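STRUCTURE:
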């Protein structure tokens, strides 16, 4: 787990991201990154609520998380779904011992062995869930869970904002926008991966680095890559 000083630094960066007119996607990506660093974990993903309580995967730290999160979305079964429905933290020491067959298979394929599912909720208002993964069978400590809850609570508070709790329709539109943004971000990742002959994860880092450096929302950078022929320089290759 991260030290108190590093947790404060993560919260400071987290707050800085959301101090402006932030994009929902950017907040959720920062949440995933902060959770992985804070818990010394291997990956993280976020799903958000759409329609009648259905969860849909929207963001992750890297491509290895996508397979397991998409299995959870397809079958609506797994720790993320359970955390969202119950409003409680779901701690899984060993995924191979869980009751979700499709989720277990996807976890084995992705190389993950333990997970914590945390609801993103403020009072009774539920936005979605955060999953934090490790590649080892792990006993998650109370300190781990407390730190993760702090991050989840901060992200949720910013997502709903004080004046938007009663505006479920507006929040729903924001979350749908995040889902729509995922499509163009995935397209941009694929194009950069192809053009630079790099992995999808490395392509995503190019997008995020440019977004952070220019203070342009990630979705807008991805849109420019896909539709406006924006070229991003790969520092490693020089291309």
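SEQUENCE:
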């Amino acid at each position: 787990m991260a030290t108190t000083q590093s947790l404060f630094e993560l919260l400071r960066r987290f707050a800085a991201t959301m101090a402006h007119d932030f994009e929902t996607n950017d907040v959720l990506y920062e949440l995933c990154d902060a959770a992985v660093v804070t818990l010394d974990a291997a990956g993280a993903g976020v799903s958000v609520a759409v329609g009648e309580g259905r969860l849909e995967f929207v963001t992750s730290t890297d491509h290895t998380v996508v397979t397991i999160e998409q299995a959870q979305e397809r079958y609506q079964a797994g720790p993320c779904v359970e955390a969202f429905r119950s409003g409680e933290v779901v701690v899984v020491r060993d995924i191979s011992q869980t009751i979700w067959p499709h989720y277990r298979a996807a976890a084995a394929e992705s190389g993950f062995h333990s997970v914590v599912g945390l609801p993103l909720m403020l009072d009774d208002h539920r936005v979605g869930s955060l999953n934090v993964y490790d590649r080892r069978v792990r006993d998650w400590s109370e300190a781990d869970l407390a730190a993760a809850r702090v991050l989840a609570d901060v992200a949720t508070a910013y997502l709903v904002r004080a004046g938007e709790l009663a505006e479920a329709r507006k929040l729903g539109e924001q979350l749908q926008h995040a889902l729509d943004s995922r499509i163009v971000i995935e397209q941009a990742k694929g194009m950069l991966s192809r053009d630079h002959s790099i992995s999808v994860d490395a392509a995503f880092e190019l997008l995020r680095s440019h977004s952070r450096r220019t203070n342009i929302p990630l979705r807008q950078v991805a849109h420019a890559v896909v539709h406006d022929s924006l070229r991003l320089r790969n520092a490693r290759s020089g291309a």
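REMARK: The chain is about 55% helix and 15% strand.
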